[in-house]
Design goal:
Chain B: Keywords: Endoplasmic reticulum, ER-Golgi transport, Golgi apparatus, Lipoprotein, Palmitate, Transport. The complex is a heterodimer of chains A (139) and B (180). Chain A has 139 residues and is an alpha+beta fold. Chain A has helices at residues 25-49, 93-112, 125-136, and strands spanning 2-8, 14-19, 57-63, 67-73, 79-85. In chain B, a hairpin with an 8-residue loop joins strand 3 (144-152) and strand 4 (161-170). Classes of the chains: A alpha+beta (139), B alpha+beta (180).
């Protein structure tokens, strides 16, 4: 269902980015990169009102002609971005939410791996398979 | 953990993530210090041995198990009492050799490896080798020389974790413990 999934570090460099049509890699990189501005904007506007209990899920960041971009920010300012095909209208907000939750859990497991150095790009196999699972589900 | 608490059989609860992460930090630090997987395995075993020779006292005091009459009984105590007490798991005892001097502990889950994924450049590392040392050290203090090693490991893609234990001999006189 998702065509691109990205994890972006607190300092806004990619920890992990994967997209399905391999030839369009660059396009998705741009898309994710652009979305970071929207994420920033969303956090700062919400941030002032409810710093403590901001919801991690940011919802739809912006739609393009072919895709929809969703965002999620952990309390440690790590950003997750999921890009889905907008032709896939069956996808509900709830499902996106649960995808993010799954992504977050997996990310936590990766962080807990003693052989992973925080800040490195993610090369974990289990994280990889989890992400592929989310991408393949409805493709 | 408070020392004054009675050593009775009630087990204290400990956060398993903290435990797992502590062990992980230990192993990765060793990997940084030694660079050679073989050497790391040796160090883990040595550390485990040192834990084992102490832990057996605590174990005997807390569990109040008596003397075991044969190796099968020892195996049962290790699996059902010791592992349960210290790691909260109960491995199964299988694969006895015909002579009855060798068996396997099958661990369905290993709390030490909860989040771990071995990187490719550490293919020779036996991550949980500390356990081997603990078993070896503990049994040595009750006059049993054993050989312990990992036969299978979930970290290397096996379905279960298997610890193979081989009885070598009874230690008749109490030699001074290893100088490590």
């Amino acid at each position: 269902m998702a065509v691109c999934i990205a994890v972006i570090a607190k300092e806004n460099y990619p920890l992990y980015i994967r997209s399905i049509p391999a030839e369009n890699k660059l396009k998705f990189h741009y898309m994710v990169h652009t979305s970071l501005d929207v994420v920033e904007e969303k956090i700062s506007t919400v941030g002032k009102a409810l710093v403590d209990q901001r919801e991690l899920y940011l919802g739809l960041l912006y739609p393009t002609e072919d895709y929809k971009v969703y965002g999620y920010v952990t309390n440690s300012k790590v950003k997750f971005v999921i890009v889905v095909d907008s032709s896939n209208t069956a996808l509900r907000d709830n499902e996106i939410r649960s995808m993010f939750r799954k992504l977050h859990n997996s990310y936590t497991d990766v962080m807990c791996n003693p052989f992973y150095n925080p800040g490195d790009t993610i090369q974990s196999k289990s994280f990889d398979t989890m992400v592929s699972g989310m991408m393949l589900q409805a493709c | 953990m408070s020392r004054q608490a009675s050593r009775a059989s009630e087990s204290k609860k400990m956060n398993s993530e903290l435990f797992t992460l502590t062990y992980g930090a230990l192993v990765t630090q060793l990997c940084k210090d030694y660079e050679n997987d073989e050497e790391v395995n040796k160090q883990l075993d040595k550390m485990g041995y040192n834990i084992g020779v102490r832990l057996i006292e605590d174990f005997l005091a807390r569990s109040s198990v008596g003397r075991c009459h044969d190796f099968r009984e020892t195996a049962d105590v290790i699996a059902k009492v010791a592992f349960k007490m210290y790691l909260g798991i109960t491995p199964s005892v299988t694969n006895w050799s015909p002579a009855g001097d060798e068996f396997s502990l099958i661990l369905e889950s290993n709390p030490l490896v909860d989040f771990v994924e071995l990187p490719d450049n550490h293919s020779g590392l036996v991550y949980s080798n500390l356990l081997c040392g603990v078993l070896r050290g503990a049994l040595e203090m009750v006059q049993m020389a054993v050989d312990v090693k990992f036969a299978q490991d979930t970290l290397r893609g096996d379905n279960v974790t298997e610890i193979r234990m081989k009885f070598i001999k009874r230690i008749e006189e109490n030699l001074p413990a290893g100088e490590e």
